[in-house]
Amino acid sequence: GTMGGLTENVFSRKLEVHGREQKRADGWHCFAPVRVVAKISLEPTVYVSSAYSTSSCRFRVTREHELQHVKIAADTLEEYAPIVLARLRRAAGAAGVAGPSTAKQLKRERQRIVRKLNAVYAEALAEMDGKLAARQARLDTESEYRRIAGLCPAE
Q1: Where does residue 150 rank: exposed (0-12), middle (13-18), buried (19+ CB within 10 A)?
Q2: Nearest one of 87, 74, 68, 67 to 127, comparing CA atoms
C-alpha cells in the first residue's frame, strides 16, 4: 500500500564552543572551554497529494498520519536533547585545559577540543537519527496503510 502523503522532518543542528583564552605573564597561552551551546530545531514539512480535495476524508486521514510522523520526530528530539547535552558536558569536562603552550600550539589544541566536541555531538545525533528512523518505520506498515484506507471507503 501507499500513502498520498510525505513528511520531511528536517533538523537544523549547530554547535558553538565558547572558551576562555589566557596569556600568562611568562608568555605561555592556555585555553579552556567554558560554554558549549548545542542548537537543534525541528522544521517539519507535511505534504498531502493534490489529488485529494482538502475537504475529503482521504486528505484528512493522510494528513493525520503525516502529523503522527511530526509528533514522533518532536518526541524523539525531546527525549534525546538531555542525552546530547549530558554527553557534551562530559566531553567538555574531559577536554580540560589546553596549554600552557605557544599561541600557535594552542590554536591546534583548541581546534582538537572543538573537533572532539563536534564528534561527540555528531555521534549522539546519529544515534537519535537511528532511533527516529526505527520509530517512523513502525508507523509506516502495511497494516497501517490498510487501516487508513478503510477509514474512507466511499472515496
Answers
A1: exposed
A2: 87
C-alpha cell at 97: 585545559
pTM of the model: 0.85
Residue type present at position 15? L
CB 28 within 8 A of CB 106: no
pLDDT tens across the length of the chain (155 residues): 456 899 999 999 999 999 888 999 999 999 888 889 999 999 999 999 999 999 999 999 999 999 999 999 999 999 999 999 999 999 998 988 888 999 899 999 999 999 999 999 999 999 999 999 999 999 999 999 888 889 998 87
User: At what angle are helices 57-95 and 103-139 packed, to 10 degrees?
Assistant: 150
* Conformation bin of residue 27: beta by default, left when phi > 0, alpha when psi is -120 to 50: left
